[in-house]
Amino acid sequence: MLILTTTVAAGALTLSACGSRGEDKSGDGSKATVVIGLDAPLTGELSALGQGIKNSADLAVKNANKQNEVEGVTFELRPLDDKALPNAGQQNATKLAGDKDVLGIVGPLNSGVAQSMQQVAQSNGVTLISPANTTPDLTQGKNWKKNDRKRQFSTYFRTATTDEVQGAFDGQYAYEKMKVRTAYVIDDQKTYGVGLASSFKDQFAKLGGKIVGTEHVSPDDRDFKAVVAKAKSAKPDLVFYGGEYPASGPLSQQLKDGGVDVPLMGGDGMYSGDYIELNKKAQGDYASSVGKPVEQLDSAKKFIADYKDAGYKDAYEAYGGSTYDATWSIIQAVKQVVQDNNGKLPDDARKKVVDAMNKVSFEGVTGKVSFDKYGDTTNTMITAYQVDNKKWAARFSAEFKKFDKS
């Protein structure tokens, strides 16, 4: 059952306000403070991704303050740890939404956690924007496969494209670029993993590929002897895994140790340096991730340099660029609201920020940032990576709708 709150921001906030929402915490009394919440797994097995998300959002907030992006406003980041658990994410959303200074929340990483946060954000009218969620249901409803698409939550946005795009990209890349003809498909039974595997299977089969077996595992499993035996007997050209790197790393190694000497392929949940650390036989494996590698983008040069200069001990990982853009989207929405209200935040700032989010459009770290009528990013670029010499190497990037079939 969802725990809902109905906190409503109250009281006019001017840029010189003190003792109420937006109280200046810098001590000079000249600026209002706007809090941007953040929810991600900052501890636990997915913390490598979570720390990259936190740091990238922190960098966006620091840059906004440094360059006085919104005149009269100081931004503050408030990160909370969800440990990749839906109930923790729901509690964090409730806590953040209950603070009237919070005008937006960046996160979460996991689609399953997002499902527990969306209604809380909606009930409190606060923007929730994920740099990593890819499950189509979050924006378009459970009937999206039947082309019956309905926006589920007006307060929810994301800068990551969906598994409808990513899974289909993976299926097409495997069939047309890797020349794979048979695949064994495994998922971890979580929202993200099931959706990704399903989209892969649909596209791969549509193109003429054969699914020679399927299996479900627990995301907590680390002993895969049974599934290795089944996959070996199926003799696939490729094993596809819908899930995340803490399980897929050991799975890949055990498959190869067990005689299934074919690549393991997965989505952005696998695309982490920790996957390679967990897997001595990662060489040749594949993973897709949303967007192009930031290292290849001119638009990301400043982000990369600023991140390095900031001295963060953790890498920005797969979602650094999309997190910076998600955070900057909230900042730009706040900027528009302030400008439209003669230099001050209105009583209904949260609502106005949500409205402004639908019109956000700027050139970000990952390219053009804007949202469609469902709250989904308009950027459908996907990149296929392969492990080569203990590093992820980009092999191919394309917008799925423009996939080169040659």
Topology of this structure?
Layout: E1 32-40, H1 47-66, E2 73-81, H2 86-97, E3 102-106, H3 111-124, E4 127-130, H4 137-140, E5 156-158, H5 163-177, E6 182-187, H6 191-206, E7 210-216, H7 225-234, E8 238-242, H8 245-257, E9 264-266, H9 273-277, E10 286-290, H10 301-310, H11 320-340, H12 349-357, E11 362-364, E12 367-369, E13 381-388, E14 391-399
Helix pairs in contact: 1-11, 2-3, 5-6, 11-12
Description:
By secondary structure, the protein is α/β, with parallel strands linked by helices. It has helices spanning 47-66, 86-97, 111-124, 137-140, 163-177, 191-206, 225-234, 245-257, 273-277, 301-310, 320-340, 349-357, and strands at residues 32-40, 73-81, 102-106, 127-130, 156-158, 182-187, 210-216, 238-242, 264-266, 286-290, 362-364, 367-369, 381-388, 391-399. The strands form 3 sheets. It has a 7-stranded mixed beta sheet with strand order 7-6-8-9-10-13-14, sandwiched between helices. Strands 2-1-3-4-5 form a 5-stranded parallel beta sheet, sandwiched between helices. Strands 11-12 form a two-stranded antiparallel ribbon. α3 (111-124) links the parallel β3 (102-106) and β4. α1 packs parallel to α11 (320-340) and α2 (86-97) packs parallel to α3 (111-124). The longest helix has 21 residues, at 320-340. The radius of gyration is 21 Å and the shape is elongated. The termini are far apart. Mean pLDDT is 91; it is low at 1-21.
The 3D shape can be described as: elongated
Query: How do the SSEs run, as a string of H and E?
Result: EHEHEHEHEHEHEHEHEHEHHHEEEE
| Sheet with most strands | 7 strands, mixed
| Unreliable residue stretches | 1-21
Average pLDDT taken over every residue: 91
Radius of gyration: 21 Å
Helix content: 25-40%
The total count of helices amounts to: 12
Tally of DSSP β-strands:
14
Adjacency order of strands in the biggest sheet? 7-6-8-9-10-13-14
